[in-house]
User: Fold Reverse transcriptase (RNA-dependent DNA polymerase) from Popillia japonica.
Amino acid sequence: MPATAAQKRQAAYKKAQDLYHRDPTLLEEKVITGQSLLEEQMVPDLVDVKTLYEGIFSSRSPPDIEPVADPKTSDLVYRPIDRDKIVTLTKNWSNSSPGPDGILVPQVKRCPAKNWSNSSPGPDGILVPQVKRCPAHMLKALFNVILYRRHIPSLWLQSRTILIYKEGDRKNPTNWRPITIGSAVQRLLHRILARRLPVAEAPFDPRQRGLRNIDGTLANILLLDHYIKSRRLARKSCNIVSLDIRKAFDSVSHHSILRALDRFGVHHAFTDYISTILQGAYTTISVGHQTTGPIEVRRGVKQGDPLSPVLFNMVLDELVCGLKNESNGGTIAPGSQVAAVAFADDLVLLQDRDLDMTLALDKTLQFCAARGMTLNPTKSVAIFATVFEGRSVVRTKPVLRIAGSFIPSLQDLSTIRYLGLPFGSTGLRKPSVHHLSLWLKNLEKTPLKPDQKFGILKTYLLPRLHFGFQSPATTEPVLSEGDRRATSLFTPPSGTAALECSSCVSIYLKFFTVDLRVFSKITHSLIFGGGCNPHHRGTCEEFSAAGFFSGAGRPASLLSFLARGAPPHSYWRENIVTMPMSMGLQDAAHDQTSRAWLRQTPRGWTGRDFVRAVQLRTANLATKSLPYIPAGERRCRAGCNKIESLAHVLQACPVTHHEHIKRHNSIVAKVARHCRRRGWTTEVEPRVRHADSQLFIPDLAVHQPSNTTTICDVQVW
Assistant:
């Protein structure tokens, strides 16, 4: 351990830089919690981890022989191509059309996600960039042969598992989420197959919001909030139970997965492939710098595999449909009842009557037990409200049991978190920004460079608040307070008052290619635009068409209310144009190359270099043309009879003109040397006479072997 204060600062800086480049999520956790960077991170004991997951993964999957009550059919399935096509594929790798039912080249090309390159390799050591460089027609042929033969490489049965901390005691292995990493080639195949399965269009029940082409979290939040408030205003009872399925993804029976595939009418070729990858699979679990031995996986789906959420949702869909058909549910609007809403394994039961809730809970317990899953009563919560003397009263005494243990009932002033937002007995609680000041104070003390602090702020801290703001309880004062606190970390350079700090920071972040704006201007984009969520969110019509708010007008009207006002793009366009010195920002608005240094700081730059570059780009330097300088005192201090604007200093002032020309010529010479090293011929400032007798003198002409001449003009600020 470092002894002196200087050694501690050096060690903290080194640790911060290491975490920023290697594990920014852990750095975010330390910033949020205020932990010391030098404090050793606690992890579960390897023996405890192995004991826990051997008991889960290696236990036998219970048989699932219950007949399917409501079979479904789907056209979005994989059917193998015929044997002749397979022979052709193995002989002719360039064949690009295996038939309508096989995997096609366009499907291979469009499936890799934008951030897939950052994904880790599997046990086979194949890197994601290597997979992306592989010709699509070869991958297509490989995938079709594997699916037709029902034989997969042995390395595809191997995987490695890492643990991601959730919350609670860090020494308890149940507070960590296992993420399993398989072969990168197999993950690409599973991305393709996941798109071929019935995910968005049919035939999942619309009350299962996970993996939909719409913001399912927002839909569930609005529906639950509307149910609580509407029943309270109508002075009627309501019963809500939020259920926690213990290790749901890790414990679901393999037999139940195959049964769900049959229920959806998936072709037996795909079912056989799933059966093959489930049998004989094993994984190793890494804890800190230690790794367990191989652990056989006899149940569950791999968290981190593209197919796993689809397979799990197919299993849980039967429960959601069964509750809808066999119970009355909670009244969302006259003639519209909802018995359950789900987002992956987050399941909430809604019933108007106590007796119906008991029956729905019993059915859920029976369903989970038959599929190898169990409910956790300690992490489940019930909200019961009844009517007493004409007013709604919360019942705080537990009445429902799971395996002999009571489900805790929500107290009158307590809250629960559902999909990341706080709910109480009166509905969704008002979002708060009180955590932001603490986060910013911790971020300010963290030994990071200025651009790195901006990166942590826009990537991790502010999106946490963005998500909480997509709520009908959000108010304008809350958003304005978020503005004030977010910009309090950044103060304008000494002596400059031309730009408001909030505008400078927000514009800088916009040039950082991040859809991040002042909080009070982002409500529209949080609901219907990108916001902090890059996925498609949908419109009011799409929510209704998806069956989310069938017959319920208020949740849909809440969407329109939340999306009130014009899109924020016009706000920022006007803000930039009306600023005193914004020409540089306007010129660079459509030039990604000139602002590439904002996304990736050039090698060798110090934090001071980055700050000065931002000041230069935003015209936020201490010249005498700033608005707070009296009009009669704005002449150039070098003696010029011109106003000392930034453009004058950089372009026209005689004192700086020589250095400006010198820098311009050095850049032209550097570009010319680079071109000559490539074997191209260059001419510096050639004199070219146009056909209309006009003379042109470009900075550089580059002649390439393909009889192509490129004219370069260098601009120096």
